[in-house]
Amino acid sequence: MQQSQKQAIRLRRAVLANLGLLFNIFLCVLAQHWGYFVLELPFLLLLLVGTWLGHLVFVILIYYSINLFFKDASLTLAQVLWVIVSLTILMCFMQGIRPLVLMGYLLVMLFGSFRLTLKEFYAVTALTFLCYLSSLLFIYFHRPQDILLSQEFFIFLGFCFVLTGFVFMGVEFSQLRQNLSRRHKELTGALARIQELAITDELTSLYNRRHLLALLAQQRALANRSQYRFVVCYLDLDHFKKVNDQYGHPFGDKVLVAFANLINASLREVDIGARIGGEEFVLILTDTDLNMAHSVCQRISEQWAHQSFKGVPLLSLTLSCGIAEFVAPETVDELLERSDKLLYQAKNNGRNCIVMEQPERQETFKFEKR
User: Are residues 213 and 177 in the same domain?
Assistant: First the structure.
């Protein structure tokens, strides 16, 4: 999920919680009108509006993405603590309807159970219990006539029982969330691996033929729309079958991997290397002309001629190459066919050479074996 989507979810939750507090102001004003608060209306409004504005800060932090600087970008724990403490202060000045605040406690804990870690949920549970007990003690010492011990005792036991149930539920939610998060990471990793395998050659990690064709189609579209130019280099390792026959296929795989590493080290970030099968490779050199492409292939050929392998010091490695520049509006298949023909011309010329196509003439470059 993208960060913008996560921020939208966080903002929606914070706004909903803020609207809940706004509705709470209406309920408390109504309760005060009916005599369920010991505070006068101006003082009660000051307390209620202060609580609402305090929570509005969280909405503003998320709206302007300041929350991203915090470890908990959702600010769930801070919001939960703010509301619990605010409800506790309100309960200290209530009479007759205090049990309703207990429902507010449970609603806040339910909100937090989906985002808090197990330790945070335990801490919030302990704080809720202490806040409720503190409010009862405050009322008992300041307005003992408002406390009916037998009634408060049963309410207290019932709240503790329900709170314990919420703890077990929170543990289940936490474990479920952790399991889902772990599976999500595993699936994301598996999907990334599948996507990688779909576009890359498993042995050399270069792009495969399918993805090469897609990239060539993109390059062709760019060249058809502007003065953009690119060159295709068709490379083939000379006498590679003899390497497999003489040294075995595992060693042949090492040779292919070494050549792929040489390609990666020789290309710019904007260039593309692909293995299209066997010992055949294709390079896409972007924003490049034929002479520049020849220089790249010449450098690769010279380095490949000096490539050495442990245990096989006398192995002589060469390559053949055909280079063709895209000419609009030809197709990708036509471009590959031209470069392939140039490659076969290089092979017919005795291999170990680069054949480069030019508009008026064709030049063959020959290299000496070491």
Answer: no
